[in-house]
Amino acid sequence: MRLSKLFGRTLRETPSGAESVSHKLLLRAGMIRQLSVQGLTLGYSYLPLALRVLRKIEGIVREEMDAIGSQEIRMLLVHPAELLKETKIGPGMACWKDRGGHEMFLGMAYEEVVTDLARREIGSYRQLPFMVYQIGTRFREEPRSHGGLIRMREFTAMDAYSFHPDQASLDEHYLQVHQAYLSIFRRCSLDTIVVQGGAEAHDFISVTEAGDDQLSRHMDRGRYADGWRDNGSDDQLSRHMDRSHYADKRRDDWSEDSIILCTKCDYAASGRVARMAKGTVGTDEELPLEEAATPGCVTIEAVANCLGVPKARTAKAVFYAAGGEVVFVVIRGDLEVNETKLANALKAADLRPATEEEIRALRAVPGYASPVGLEGVKVVVDDSIPAARNLVAGANKESYHLVNVNYGRDFTADVVADIAAAQPGGACIHCGGKLRAVQGVAVGKADKLGTKYSRALGATFLGCDGQERPLVMGHYSIAISRMMAAVIEQHHDDKGIIWPPSIAPYQIHLVALSMNDPRVVEAAEGLYAELQARGFEVLYDDRDEGAGVKFNDADLIGIPLRLTVSPRTLKQNGAELKLRWEKEARVVGLEGLYSAIEAALIGPSAVAQG
Questions:
Q1: Residues 193-211: what's their mean pLDDT?
Q2: Letter string b/e over residues 350-364, b meaning 16 or more CB atoms within 10 A of that residue's CB
Q3: Which of 131, 184, 191, 224 has the most C-beta neighbours closer than 10 Å?
């Protein structure tokens, strides 16, 4: 491809509104362009360079999925509401009615569609197990797209689904997918950490702080995270996990995430589900319940200061609405509610903070609310509350709190669960080590769905004993367009992108300097033709621009190998060869140029990049 004819131009300045490193560089390199209306970003168009990268990532994904026996299919983007209503319509699903009045949804996930296919095609255990996948467009009606390709309404993803006769078969296949994922990310030069994403789910997270010594211990080259620990074999996948199913997986899909890591052991989990040791508070005997004046103290900190107690000796009241009712949540004052954990405990997909009007309708007093004596409301308490003694809680009375409140004696709960957010600085549940948080983005997910969808949609098979059973399912996703951004987040410098050879848009960036010199033009054109004839992918900068502009654009676009032809190199009867991630360039004679190019693109430094 001649750069003079390439659709898309590089930009010297970063457009306003660009946030992440990948967002800025993709825009400046002429790879993506924003489509927006009235301040709302609808998404991005992929220009030729970006699309070539996307296609190469897709190719790697296909090769690895095919290698474990998965078969590629293509499902419709538009889903009928009737099919989704058999399970659940999740938040973020765009819907409309067609001209015939039929309610339709744009595909954000394909569980219902693929389960409908399976119930029509599968009848016997002899057809199991099997796995299908597709690579295509997904749509999530985000309130705000941000971070460029990190979080978009419309994005490209791989969705795979496996079907099994029993849990043991799913467990075995889950390990195969895990290895395929690691191979995909390794081939794309994307460092990932595998973290617990739910009771039966894992997230593959790209973390940009890969240079951190503590973090590098958790990377996928040898160590695995909670629930997927490397014990020298692959036959003990879920020994740290219970069998409860992760609640509505459409909640918080493909979000940026805080990852909780232990600085001492290998524990790692998504901030949505991470756990920490909470210890015990107030181990003395239960004391008599008393009322104390706390005028103007409507925050935990104010109450603790007023009564001279640590925040851990207080009971925080938080109200939510879920499933059409208000929920009273009680958690220790030094902890925060993790809304994903709470939604899972309630099996609710529509969790939101309650309004003040909803709170007062319960006869609770905002700022002084208490579960003591309150009736007609569902109470959920964090599991730290039953383990604490003599807490301070609201009195449901303006300017007053109760002292020496004890769970079991003074109030009980409908649900007791771990609903606390794991906090940096907290203690690891495995070793007591200190926890820390890093930011990352989910580039892959794996989830043991079990029989949730097959039971809802009646997808069954006949076992070897002639009994009808529901199919056992697994779901696996890779966000391909997000992977492209994640690679840039990990592979760039102050000059631009550094593409790994395996997914670079082109292998060679051929630069001709002094285009007014016929010798340069003749040599560059001949080299361009010969490189293509030998099977190399070449982007040829044939523009009438100066060396500074051409080199800056080459660094910005980030193609692995830059090959320069100039009057200076012709005097040496060669061309200048430079790898994007190296500082030094060297002139190679024309007689040995092609072997030098092959060595550079497949040598140790290239392998390290790709």
A1: 77
A2: ebeebeeeebeebeb
A3: 184
Predicted pLDDT of residue 218: 52
Q: Which domain holds residue 118?
A: 31-275+434-490
Do 366 and 485 lie in a common domain?
no
Separation in Å, CA 554 to CA 23, 28, 506, 543, 558 = 18, 12, 11, 12, 6
Question: Is 90 exceeded by the pLDDT of residue 109?
Answer: no
Q: How far is Cα 432 from Cα 161, in angstroms, rounded to an integer?
A: 37
Q: Beta partners for 579?
A: 561
Sign for the pseudo-dihedral over CA of 377, 382, 387, 392: negative
Considering the domain boundaries, does residue 23 fall inside one? Answer: no
- If you compute the radius of gyration of the chain from its CA atoms, what whole number of angstroms results? 29
Instruction: Tell me which of 466, 490, 514 is where a domain ends.
Output: 490
Q: What is the pTM of this model?
A: 0.80
Q: Which of 469, 438, 435 is nearest to 455 (CA)?
A: 469
Last residue of a domain, one of 426, 458, 490: 490
Burial class, 583, CB count within 10 angstroms (exposed 0-12 / middle 13-18 / buried 19+):
exposed
Whether pLDDT at 96 is above 80: no
Q: Domains in the chain: how many in total?
A: 3
Greatest CA separation for the chain:
98
Compute, in degrees rounded to 10, the torsion defined by CA atoms 354, 359, 362, 366.
Answer: 150
103: confidence class by pLDDT, cuts 50, 70, 90: confident
Q: Burial, 270: exposed, middle or buried (Cβ in 10 Å; 0-12, 13-18, 19+)?
A: buried
One domain for residues 133 and 241: yes
* 189 plus 94 within the same structural domain: yes
Instruction: Give the pLDDT mean for 18-46.
Output: 87
**What are 578-595's pLDDT values in tens digits?**
999 999 999 999 889 999
Q: Which of 278-282, 340-344, 448-452, 556-560 has the lowest mean pLDDT?
A: 278-282
Neighbours of 176 (CB within 10 A): 16
| Backbone phi and psi for residue 115, each to the nearest 5 degrees, phi listed first | -70, -35
